[in-house]
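In this supplementary section we document a worked example of the pipeline. Step one takes a protein sequence of length 322 as its only input; no multiple sequence alignment statistics are reported here. Step two produces a three-dimensional model, which step three serialises into structure tokens for compact storage. The input and output of this example are shown verbatim.
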Amino acid sequence: MIQEIANNLNSLSGVIALLAFLVSIAALYVSIKSLSLKYSNKVIGYYNYMSSIESSTPFIREIVLQNLKDKEVAIHDIYIKFGHNVYLDMLDKDSLNEAYIHVLPPLGTLTFKFGPVYLYSEQTQIADISKLIERKIHGKIILSTNDGMIKVKPIKKGWSPISEYFKNYGTVIIQSNRYYRKDSVCYNGDYKHKAIDYTSYGDRILYLVTLRLEDKSEVEYPIYQKLDYKVEKFSKQTFTEEILSSTKTLKEFLKKEKSKGRIQFESIVKIRDAHALINRDIKRYQKEEPIIIKAEGWFDYNIKDKFITLWWKFKDNYIRKF
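The serialised model returned by step three reads:
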């Protein structure tokens, strides 16, 4: 009897010891996983592009970054890399915003929204990168951070029922149509995760009209070259080439439309000739034809271009001295 109890206790002790070992292994695994979240950097993300009536060239519309580590990432610059040699600068820093950085929070997400581009340039020349942006093989997102360069890995597990539809036309997607209350997130746009706004105007814009509305707010409305493409504010107005020939004629036209009750605003704050400003900048580059930028492969960039670079350095450092 006593021997049987002892055997049972030994068996129970073995089970307890095994359970304790498994718990310690599990705790070690959790600790290692937790530590790995603090070590190094890992960012995944994607970008998409679009063409628009607002611009004569395609442009990057959105970049989404997701931090998979439990540590902040201070982003100084964002580039889209095509091939081995082309870097498209997305933040376009200058003397006014060169010190500004974006912080990707731990285990968090950042979304960047971009607008049309009126010009791509490489040093003093206009650059044509349309084929690079529109090609099927996407470029790679590169981040310049305090920890150096971070290559953003693509998101591979995204899903949408829209993709299911193109695989099988029997797929049905139902939209919920609602009339939102004033305190709802969709009514006032008060999202917790807001995109960082880098939106802009393209080269097909004519004027920027700033109106003071009845509620004393000032809103800027664009007018485009294509006369039948209008923002909602000017939906009842019929623009002609004569009306849009100058800021003066446009201003007089809008005042007449207001007196007729066809448009509501308190006053015209200002009208900017955006097309003239953009053309003035473009003319600085239009000394030669635009250069078509091509993405190079590994051999061309790492062997051929490297050899040319060393040759020019040799000429600068030695040959020109004699």
